[in-house]
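Hi there. Long-time user, first ticket. I'm pasting a complex I've been working with (about 433 residues overall). I'd like to know whether the download I got is complete or cut off, because the file seemed smaller than I expected. Thanks.
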Amino acid sequence: MINTNKTPIELVIAVTGLNAIDSPGPGISVIRAIRDCKDFKVRIIGLSYESLEPGIYMHDIVDKTYQIPYPSAGTESLLNRLNEINIHEEINVLIPNFDAELHNFIKISDALLKMGIKTFLPSHEQLESRDKINLSEFGKQHNFDVPADRILYRIEELSRAVKELEFPIVVKGKYYEATVAYTLEQAQKAFQKLQAKWGLPIIVQQFISGTEINIAALGDGDGNAVSVIPMRKLYITDKGKAWAGVTLEDANLIDMAKRFIEITKWRGGFELEIMRSPEGVLFIMEVNPRFPAWIYLTAGAGQNQPAALVKMAIGEKVIPFTNYQVGKIFIRYAWDLITDIQEFQQISAFGEL
Amino acid sequence: MKLKSNIATSESGFVFNPTSGDSYSANSVAAEIMLLLKENNSIREINQIMLSRYEVDSSHFEKDLDDFIAQLRDQNLLEL
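Hi, the file is complete. Here it is re-exported in full:
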């Protein structure tokens, strides 16, 4: 990327996903990457849903946080709240980082633009095409290897699905979480738990063993890949999240992400969750329509994807990256942040801190 | 027989395969052999070099070397 203007651009950037917990949202990583970019001088506005999202209290990372309504409250209340916040903050760019909120943010993106807030998001059609519910069909249509699955709306449908797919199977929630089940009882238990948490449908997927690889990528919306970084998970938590990972050099993985972008004309960041089978087949297990929580590794490896997204959002031309450092490792860690009850009270009672 | 060109090796015996993300720790003799493979020496040449460096029974070493090469092949570290 070339910044012809040597003076850093002053920007106010709003970011969601401040829940830097054991299954973290990407917000803090996105902010760190943006702050690393010398082309910007930023004020970061955190947008939170709950009072104990750690990012709210990280004052050297997030300058000010405002609570926003849950996605279930709908677009009108979200827009009203953002309008209120924008009167004080004059936001230039907004980066949503949760799957569950994307639909609403895409819907209000034109209204946000009228308020002067730019986004760089996929369309609703792009969002739907990679949805877990449609992924199998997407794979067939575009010749990607995707595990066989069944989309279930009733628990009674489970026994037939497991007969067809054979144990073990993976039971997945609509937005998040997955459990490997080895018996019908385990599958039923997982179904009920995920239904209660994320609603219907539940996705039941063929289990594929192998090496877990994730790819973080950024598309320009015209079918071009601005950046692709593959990462092998080195340490996986009991929730299946990467706690450490290393950047890989593999042309097949990069070609796969580029082909995905070319076909979908994806606009914005996304993550491909890949399983490389012992035979070397690359299965797409899931496509996450936003940056992953490990996105800071892309900045560490030389392709700062969040910074590139900000540049595209404000209308700068970004030249696709070509090189990155292979063998760059991220290791996540837990850190006890100490704060005062007044801060908790402030965000809980007044919705801002 | 040659190590894949992108395999990173260090003198301390650390080996990293950037395609798979796998890393290994090799002992000093294994590290020496990997270096010789990287320099494009044949198995026969490696045998001769190592036998000239160490006092070891040749048939015993040959068998160990075959085993080691098989391990490297299993781990996808050798050019096809």
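A couple of notes from our side: Residues 8-74 of chain B form one domain. DSSP finds three helices and three strands in chain B.
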